[in-house]
Amino acid sequence: METFVTFAxxxxxxxxxxxxxxxxxxxxRPEVLATKSSPTDVVTALDRASEELIRTRIRTVRxxxxxxGEEGGSTGDGRVRWIVDPIDGTVNFLYGLPDWAVSIAxxxxxxxxxxxxxxxxxxEVFTAARGxxxxxxxxRLHCNTGVPLNRALIATGFGxxxxxxxxxxxxxxxxxxxxxxxxxxxxxxxDLCSVAAGRVDGYYERGPQTWDYSAxxxxxxxxxxxIGGLNGRPHGPGLTVCAAPGLFEELCDLLAxxxxxxxx
Length: 264
Ligand code: IPD
Description:
Layout: H1 4-25, E1 32-35, E2 42-44, H2 45-61, E3 66-69, E4 73-75, E5 80-88, H3 90-95, E6 101-108, E7 111-119, E8 124-129, E9 133-136, E10 139-140, E11 153-156, H4 162-175, E12 181-183, H5 188-196, E13 202-205, H6 210-222, E14 226-228, E15 240-243, H7 247-255
This protein binds D-MYO-inositol-1-phosphate.
D-MYO-inositol-1-phosphate is lined by residues 70, 85, 88-90, 157-159, 186-188, 205, 207-208, 212.
């Protein structure tokens, strides 16, 4: 019988395997195979190879589970669903920057219960199991607490669509003067793990999809952070905000009047 912890272990094992393949096969200059929502939203052959490896491994051990992958879409309809981002931070992967990750979450009846985020170039695999904590290299993670908004280091990211970016820049102009500083790492999954590890104090972004934030979101929550949307709504592609309780509310109060859930 699988538990949330054994699901996390399996997700970690598979995320490590995909990471090893990606390191072994990454050419010095990976080629763009296709573009998606805009000419800057790229897919490489290795995004697809990574997802195929992950799908094959999941199917071998858990043939009845559903899988949702960024590249391959939805397959199966079991109560257990694996949510896979084969490379989160594909642009970093393309340029050889260190923040890209393999992200694998496990959902049961619609609730994320386990996850692993392998930030491959950094050699760091973050894991979490619901109710059991978040972990990195055998250490339990705790997000920063008691940080006021004006001392908070906040991670964010930008979409691929020009109209969305115009609004994101406007929102940023409202956020930047109110916080310590901003970081744009290039991987939502890694950003959420950075909240968990206290490397940033908070995160917000419009646009990331369930494969970008499911595993990292659980890691952050299990490290004590709160994740959600504005005005008590759940987080999602419309907006995801994440920070320790206290800072979370302050960040939401700053964001709400800036109307960040719109596109130009
Ligand atoms: C992207 C990254 C990035 C975020 C974008 C995402 P991808 O995922 O997570 O940090 O700002 O919104 O789309 O396209 O590299 O899998």
